[in-house]
Amino acid sequence: MNMKKQSNFKYFVLFTAAALLLAACLFPAPKSLAEERLWDVEEDGGVSEATPAPDYAPMPAASAARGEHAENLYEAELHVARDAKSLSGKLRFTYTNRTADVLYVIKLRLHANDVAPGSLKVNSVSVNGERSYYTLDGEKESMLTVPLPLEIKNGEEAEIFLTFDLTFPETGNRFGINTTGVMLGNFLPIAAVYEDGAWRNDRYIDEGDAFFSETADYRIVLTYPDDHTVAHTGSMLEERQDNVYEKSRYITASRSRDFALALIPDGETAFAEALNGRVGVRAVTASEKTAAFAADTAAKAIDFFSTKIGLYPYTDFAVVPFDRTGGMEYPGLVMVSERYFRDSYREMGELVIFHEAAHQWFYALVGSDQINAPWLDESLVEFLGFRCYAELYGEEAAEKLWQERFIDYSGTQRTARLDADLYAFEQDGYFMTVYAHGAALYRALYEELGEDTFYGALRIYFDANSFSVADMDDLIAAFEEASGRDLTAWFEERMAAEYRF
Ligand SMILES: [Zn+2]
């Protein structure tokens, strides 16, 4: 899918500001999702400041305008248990059929069950207000199929309401309990992608990011034990102390590719500003010092990539530590290995934060098929992390870090094409191919085209494909437009497993 929109980003910013203000004015008292649509309840609440218009060059993506149709909408009430080991959830999902086909079912991915089978238990499903039967498919019951009482044609919508319980597994990973806190990535039931006449049902593997989703609007009421600090996708509109041990937080995320959440016990929070104060960057870690480091580093990245590629369109960004090596990106929230917050890993820590921040541009905004073309976002952001590093600390320091990171991989023989699907790397070779050789491809392209043309191409790519899903043709087209050259053969030659950088 490749929607090219012509209208101006200003409308998106204005819409977001208006929506935030409106939602804040009409803020509901905590009410059951089953009774009322979350944001249509008349009750006074705290009023948030409207987001100021950006005064930051260059212009953001033209494709950022909402266009004629609204996004799918996820409205959820999530109640985290007092011991922070589980949550109970209610989700109302309003799905609009934007495909050319008539749809008789809607399918949702339950990735929690991919990671830890049985961790997400569906209790009930309704469609358009009527109780519905449903099936849980796949070996791990990670695909929820909901038949529709009335089929929906293009432009028609259906409303699915489901209740579920989620137990947090002890994984030390992006979904589950870590020593640093609870990481809830890919935990919320999310629509599968409908493509070429079928719902995508890709097998999950731990390698890479076996997830693929489209952007949607999220409105979340999160109730959580107040001995935890939360970080999440989107913006907080209001928070209330419900009782002596619980808070409820109202969160909105517009045009977001997913919704992720982290709960950090006894977390220290640090703030930094990006884009002249338009973006609030937060880091929640175990100490004030590491939180300040992470927030400052992330703010630098938001400024750098906004300047070079296009404006970061959201108002919030958060960084949290987890146990796994490396990092993991979600819209507006990144998880970074706890060790990278320590002084002894500072350089690599900065690089990883830059990498995860770059994913806001390539993964969150410009989407791509992370299962069939994992290199498309991953190789690019790996290279961009080094560019951000070079900008701040000089080429020599960036080169030193490059050698440190890729010393074992330069000149090595790949076993798969660079543009192979994720399953080609199930045994090994993912980091070497997609990170090391992928970054080397972009380094070669950067040297060949020069800095201005390189970033010019990324601006074209970002402009045309934000809030959408891009493929390799879109990427090459952008570099060809910026350079005035035919680059198909250049890319093709370097995709081959035999190619050595
Ligand atoms: Zn990445």
Question: How would you describe this protein?
Answer:
By secondary structure, the chain is an alpha+beta fold. The protein has a domain at 70-265: Immunoglobulin-like. The protein contains 10 helices and 25 strands. Strands 5-4-8-2-1-14-17-16 form an 8-stranded mixed sheet, with helices on one face. A 5-stranded mixed sheet has the order 19-20-21-23-22, with helices on one face. Strand 9 and strand 10 form a beta hairpin. Helix 5 (375-393) crosses helix 6. It starts with 8 loop residues before the first helix and ends in a 6-residue tail after the last helix. Mean pLDDT is 89; it is low at 1-11, 21-32 and 34-58. It binds zinc ion. Residues 329, 355, 359, 378, 381 line the site of zinc ion.
Brief summary:
The chain is an alpha+beta fold and 501 residues long. The protein is built from 10 helices and 25 strands.
Q: Which descriptors would you attach to this protein?
A:
binds zinc ion, 5-stranded mixed sheet, alpha+beta, 10 helices, 8-stranded mixed sheet, disordered N terminus, 501 residues
